[in-house]
Amino acid sequence: MTTFAQAILSGTAQGAIYALLALGFVIIYKATHVISFAQPALMVCGGLFSYHFSAVLGWPFWPSLFIAILLGAALGMVIERLALRPMVGKPVFTLAIITIGVDVVLRVLANRYIGADSRALRYPGGGERYELLGLALSHRQVTIIAVTVITVVSLALFFRYAKAGLAVRATALDQETALAQGVRVGAMFALAWAIAGGLAAIAGTFIATGSGGIEQDTWIIALKALPAIIIGGLDSLQGAVIGGLLVGIVEQVTAVYQAAYLPFLGANFSLVAPYALMLLVLLIRPYGLFGTKEVERV
Amino acid sequence: MTTTPVPGSAPHGPRPPRGRPLLRTSYAQHMGLLNTPGKRWSTLVLVIVGFCAPLLFTDDLLQVLTLGLFAAIGAIGLNLVTGYAGQVSLGHAFFIGLGAYTAAVVGGDTDGRLLGLGMPMYIWLPAAGLVTAAAGLLIGPLAVRLRGLYLAIVTLGVVFLGLHIFREASNLTGGPGVGRRAPDVELFGINASVSGGLPGLDWTRDQQLFVVALIFLIIFAVAARNIARSGVGRAFAAIRDRDVAAAVIGVDLAGYKLLAFALSSFYAGICGALYYTVVRVIEPTSFDLLLSVQFLAMVLIGGVSTISGSIMGALFITALGRMAIEIAHYVPFVSTSVTGGGLLNVFQLEGILYGLLIIGFLIAEPRGLYGIWIRVRNYWKGWPFSY
Question: Is this complex's ipTM strictly greater than 0.90?
Answer without folding.
Answer: no
